[in-house]
Structures are given as structure tokens and as C-alpha cells.
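From the methods appendix. Each design record in this collection lists the discretized structure first, followed by the designed amino acid sequence. Records were kept in a plain field format so they could be parsed without special tools. The example shown here is representative of the layout used throughout.

RECORD:
C-ALPHA CELLS (155 positions):
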């Protein structure tokens, strides 16, 4: 059975990095959903849920950080295209006793996908959780950041 060999889209035939040319692609609806998990001491999660952190509202701050990060992804990921993001949603959900789950949904109408924007949103939200709670818990771990869904349609 013959399989199609995959090549890296950001490397040209001479091995040099390049930005992918999406000029000829159609403008379509695109959405990506990414997730992440932050594990902390159960007492820390209880404190977070009670709104007891000295730095303020962890949930609102992490959501805002994720939204801002999605909008600025092309500035921090070298070969990402700057995109007109039409929607970013970042949600944080406690999974007691010790996990905070983060989900980011990003949408656009464009020539390239928004999975990097969704992943970046989750990363920034997770780092914000870490920053806001590190004073009370030195053992916080950002466990995973992963793509849940990527889709496009003529919608």
C-alpha cells in the first residue's frame, strides 16, 4: 500500500522556513476549539472558587488574557498569518478536587485556520491561572494544551 508522504508546510524545497501562501485559498468560515488543564492543590482550587485570591478574580482575568492572546497570536508565533478574528470565547471550569479545565473557541472568515489562536488563548489563560495562584501554591502544573476541533465550511 502506497502512502502519500507529508511535507512540512512551512519549509521550502531548499529547507528554508517560509510563510505558507494562502492567497489562492477561498475565504470560508473557520473555527477551532482548544483545551487545557491546570492542576493545583485542592485547597488552592477551593480558594480560587471562593474568590479568595489576593490578585483578584482569576476567572475574569484568565478569560481576558486568553482573548487578548488569541488576537495577538501572529505577533508571537513567527509564521502565523495575522487574522481578522470574529469571535473568541474562553471558559474555565473547575473539576474538583484539583483541576481547572480551560476551553477556547475561536472563529473567523478567512483563508487559513484559527487553531493556533485557540491554542494560544488556552496557553495564555493557563499561564494567567498560574500567575494569579502561584503565591499560595508552588506546585501548580499546566498539564496539557491540545486541539479539540478544527473545522471549516462555506457557512
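DESIGN:
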Amino acid at each position: 500500500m502506497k502512502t502519500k508522504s507529508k511535507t512540512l508546510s512551512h519549509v521550502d524545497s531548499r529547507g528554508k522556513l517560509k510563510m505558507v501562501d494562502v492567497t489562492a485559498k477561498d475565504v470560508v468560515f473557520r473555527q477551532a476549539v482548544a483545551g487545557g488543564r491546570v492542576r493545583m492543590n485542592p485547597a488552592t482550587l477551593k480558594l480560587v472558587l471562593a474568590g479568595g485570591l489576593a490578585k483578584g478574580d482569576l476567572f475574569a482575568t484568565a478569560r481576558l488574557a486568553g482573548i487578548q492572546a488569541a488576537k495577538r497570536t501572529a505577533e508571537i508565533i513567527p509564521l502565523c498569518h495575522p487574522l481578522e478574528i470574529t469571535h473568541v470565547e474562553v471558559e474555565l471550569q473547575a473539576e474538583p478536587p484539583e483541576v481547572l479545565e480551560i476551553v477556547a473557541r475561536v472563529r473567523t472568515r478567512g483563508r487559513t485556520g484559527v487553531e493556533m489562536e485557540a491554542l494560544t488563548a488556552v496557553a495564555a489563560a493557563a499561564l494567567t491561572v498560574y500567575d494569579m495562584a502561584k503565591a499560595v501554591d508552588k506546585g501548580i502544573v499546566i498539564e496539557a494544551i491540545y486541539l479539540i476541533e478544527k473545522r471549516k465550511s462555506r457557512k
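APPENDIX NOTE: The chain has one domain: 28-153.
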